[in-house]
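RETRY 2/3 - previous attempt timed out on the joint model. Re-submitting the same 331-residue input unchanged.
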Amino acid sequence: MTQDEFVALVEMWGADIARWPARYQDEARRFAETGEGQALLDAARPFDALFSMKPDISKDRAADAAFAVMQRIAAPRQRWTDRLGKVWMPRWWMPAGLACSMLVGVSLAVLVPPDRNAEQPEAVIDLVLDSGTAPFWSAP
Amino acid sequence: MMNTEADEMLVTRIAARDQRALRILMERHMSRALRVAQRVLINAADADDVGQEAFMRVWTHAASFDPSTARFTTWLYRIVLNLALDRTRDQARKPKHQPIEDAADIHADEHIAEDRLIEMQQQMTLTKAMALLTDRQRAAIALFHMEGLSGRDAAQVMGLADKAFESLLIRARSALKQHVEQLERDRRSCA
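RETRY 2/3 succeeded.
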C-alpha cells in the first residue's frame, strides 16, 4: 500500500482501521506500523472524535416520545367508540325528535273533537286518555 | 427484569398487535432513532416527530419486516432516514424561520466546568457545520461515524451501492472538515 492510498483511505474511513472494509485492513495495519503511517492516523484522530459526537438525547425525551406513540396507538380505539356512539345516537336525533313531537301535537289538535268542558283539568285528562277508545262520531 | 428477547422476535410479536413488545423496542431504540433524526434534521422538535412516526410505521408495518434480509436496526434506520429526508424536502419548499446560529448559542457560565464548555463549543461548531452539508451527507456521517454502522450496513440503510456510499462519505467528511475549520477560524477572529 502506498502512502497516497493510505491517505485516501484515512480520509474516507477515518483513523480507526478496524472500521475500514476488510479487504484493506491487513495492508493498512502494516503501513500503520511505519512512522509516517502512525503520524497520518494521529493527525486524523481529533477530527474523528469530533465527527462521532452525538446529539445528547435524554432518557426523559426518549420516554416522552415512546409515550406519545402509545397514545397514538390507543387513539384509533377511542375514535372507534365515538363512531359507535354516532350509530346509536346520531346528531340529527334531537331536531328529528322535536319535529315528531310537533307532528303528534298538531295531529291531536286536528283529530280530537273540541269539548265544551275542556277548561276543566279533569276533562282535558279524560279527553287525552280516552280519545283513543272514544269514537269521534259518538253523540255529545 | 430486563427483557433479552431479540429485536426481530419482538417485531414478530408486534405484528400480532402486542403493545408490550413495541414498548420494549422503543425503550431500546427510541434514543437511537431520535439521534439519527436530529443529526439529519438539526431541529429537536422535528426529530421527535420523526422518531414517533418511525415507530408508528414499525407498529403498522411489522408484518412486512423480513428478518432474513435485514436486522431490525437496519430496517429502523432506513425508516427514520426516509422520514427525515422526506421532511427536509418538505422544509426546503417552505421559507426558513430559524437560522441555525440562533439554535445553539452557548452562554458562558462560570459554574460550568471548562472541559464541559469546550465540549459544548465543539458540539455547537459541529452542529453548525453539519447544517451546511447536504441531507444525504449528514445522513452518511450520522450512520457511519455517530451510530457506528459498517460501510456496508450504512450503504444498505441509504439504499446505495457500497461504492456510491464510499464516495458520498468521503465528500461528506471533506466538506464537514472544511466547514469546521472555517467556523473555528471565524470564531477565533471574533474572540
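The two ends of chain A are 125 Å apart (CA to CA). Closing ticket.
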